[in-house]
């Protein structure tokens, strides 16, 4: 397969919602290979189909570290069926080269999806793990939502975006997350 060009923040294509996959066809398997090849080529933890301009509900994640064997995980038509708790997540995105900032995420998630063999599976990721946060980040891409929409400090984020020649935070897209913010504050007070 091939390493594809990753769309960069500012490209409105990233904001378009993706459609469900009806069959794990050759075309979908090719897409999965492209996503994995591109993610590994860029040393990413995850990559979603819309980031390479394909609006299908597919993303890949690999949270293995350098001294571990590769562990590619494929999620087709994912649904987050449970979410609980809150954490601060210091995130970046392959569509935002070099820009990292703190966002709010759920601490635990349970996701239901289909794998590349067309089999349904359920996966639980807890404790604000990299996997738990990556699932939420990649899932968002399928709805045209970007990590920056969850930002905790938009002024700091704007500064980081500007330093990396990226467009500013889009105020109209910021997600109101007062409950998550309250949980985060309760946790840090103890
Ligand atoms: Ni991303």
Description:
The chain has 190 residues and is α+β, with helices and mostly antiparallel strands. Helices cover 27% and strands 26% of the residues. The chain has 4 helices and 7 strands. It has helices at 26-41, 130-142, 154-163, 178-189, and strands spanning 46-48, 58-61, 73-84, 87-93, 96-105, 108-114, 120-125. It has a 5-stranded antiparallel sheet, with helices on both faces. A hairpin with a 2-residue loop joins strand 4 (87-93) and strand 5 (96-105). The chain is globular, with a radius of gyration of 16 Å. The chain binds nickel (II) ion. Nickel (II) ion binds at residues 93-95, 137, 141.
Quick description:
With 190 residues, the chain is α+β, with helices and mostly antiparallel strands. It has helices spanning 26-41, 130-142, 154-163, 178-189, and strands at residues 46-48, 58-61, 73-84, 87-93, 96-105, 108-114, 120-125. The mean pLDDT is 96.
Give the helices and strands as they follow along the chain: HEEEEEEEHHH
What is the terminal-to-terminal distance? 50 Å
Weakly predicted, low-confidence segments: none
- The order of strands across the largest sheet is 1-2-3-6-7
Mean pLDDT: 96
Ions, cofactors and other bound molecules:
nickel (II) ion
**Overall 3D form:** globular
Can you count the helices? 4
**What level of helicity do the residues show?**
25-40%
The value of Rg in angstroms is: 16 Å
């Amino acid at each position: 397969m091939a390493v594809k060009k990753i769309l960069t923040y500012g490209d409105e294509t990233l904001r378009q919602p993706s459609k469900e996959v009806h069959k794990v066809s050759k075309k979908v398997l090719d897409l999965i290979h492209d996503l994995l090849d591109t993610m590994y080529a860029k040393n990413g933890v995850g990559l979603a189909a819309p980031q390479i301009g394909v609006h299908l509900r597919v993303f890949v994640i690999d949270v293995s570290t350098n001294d571990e064997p590769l562990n590619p995980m494929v999620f087709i038509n994912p649904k987050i069926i449970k979410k609980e708790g809150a954490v601060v997540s210091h995130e970046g995105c392959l569509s935002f080269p070099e820009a990292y900032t703190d966002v709010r995420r759920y601490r635990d998630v349970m996701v239901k999806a289909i794998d590349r063999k067309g089999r349904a599976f359920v996966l639980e990721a807890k404790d604000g793990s990299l996997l738990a946060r990556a699932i939420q980040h990649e899932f968002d891409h399928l709805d045209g939502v970007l990590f920056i929409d969850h930002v905790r400090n938009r002024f700091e984020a704007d500064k980081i975006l500007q330093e990396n020649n990226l467009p500013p935070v889009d105020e109209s897209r910021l997600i109101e997350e007062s409950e998550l913010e309250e949980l985060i504050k309760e946790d840090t007070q103890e």
